[in-house]
Amino acid sequence: MKKLILPFLFFLLLLLAACGNTENEGTAAEADKDSEKDTITYESETGPVEVPKEPQRIIALTNAPNVLALEGNIVGVDEWTNANPLFTDKLTDAEIVTEDNLEKILELEPDLIIAGSHMKNLDKLGEIAPTVAFTWGKLDYLDQQVEIGKLLNKEQEATDWVADFQERAAAAGDEIRAEIGEDATVSVIESGNKEFYVFGDNYARGTEILYQAMKLKMPAKVEELALEAGVYTFSSEVLPEFAGDYVIFSKNPDVDNSFVETDVWKNIPAVKNGQVFEINTKASTYSDPITLETLLTFFEESFLGN
């Protein structure tokens, strides 16, 4: 009888062990599946990156405004975005960081880091949290927002905004051209310490809206010198040569703007005709949805008197 019982007990032990292994494998598989559900694969410029499906603590060394437009929670941000008056209220709890502040970044416990491809320490940042780098200017202003949408698992939201914005901006452009004339020119000029800048159609300050979306015309000299380069620097003596029928004056509050009291400025036709519309440089140097919506409203009110 004992000879029969011993083999049976041995078989039972093997059976229980097998069941236990199966159960453990099942638990591990479920855990892996749950883990997969918490991440998505983002196809970055340098290859696929596993990122949180719903990131909770984002460090944005670049593209922070795009993240804020999709209500991403930023815990670390670059100093330029932090100084922008459009984003002050949205960044009250964020720390200013750079790619060199590795210890500080580590302390902030990010679950996603967004950086520029030109930045240092990308490998070290990747050891702290999943890191995605973008090359400035590789995507246009609308495609960039869609990419941030993909990264934050909000692609549809970003895509819907792009389509809606394009439609509204184009309609506003039709109204403005009907109001000021199809051949009326618009230039975007910014003040510096001892120089001025005039911009092409993709250098923020509302240029994407005015020239790309609204299809307004730039003066021939601006088109010649700034369209391809994006920006052209000149001195105050030649200001009239770059001023269109309408001027968007990007006023930098940190520089000397006394030139507006000079005859050179006062004798520009756009100035004489009250066709100069002033924007704040600090609030206009990005091309994210928050900035674009603000400037779209401003341009509609300025050109159409709404």
What does this structure look like?
The chain is an alpha/beta fold. The chain has 2 domains: 41-153, Nitrogenase molybdenum iron protein domain (Rossmann fold); 171-304, Rossmann fold, CATH 3.40.50. Helices cover 45% and strands 18% of the residues. It contains 13 helices and 12 strands. It has helices at residues 2-37, 64-69, 79-82, 102-107, 122-128, 141-151, 155-180, 207-213, 220-226, 239-242, 263-266, 269-272, 289-304, and strands spanning 39-44, 47-52, 58-60, 74-77, 95-96, 112-116, 131-134, 186-191, 196-199, 231-234, 246-251, 276-280. The radius of gyration is 28 Å and the shape is globular. Residues 1-17 form the signal peptide. Keywords: Signal, Transport. It is found in: Cell envelope. This is Iron(3+)-hydroxamate-binding protein FhuD.
The major pleated sheet works out as: 5 strands, parallel
Low-pLDDT stretches: none
Structural class: alpha/beta
Fill in the CATH topology of the largest domain.
Rossmann fold
Number of helices: 13
What order do the strands of the largest sheet run in, or round the barrel if closed? 5-4-3-6-7
Number of domains: 2
Helix content: 40-55%
What string gives the helices and strands in order?
A: HEEEHEHEHEHEHHEEHHEHEHHEH
CATH architecture of the largest domain: 3-Layer(aba) Sandwich
* End-to-end separation: 101 Å
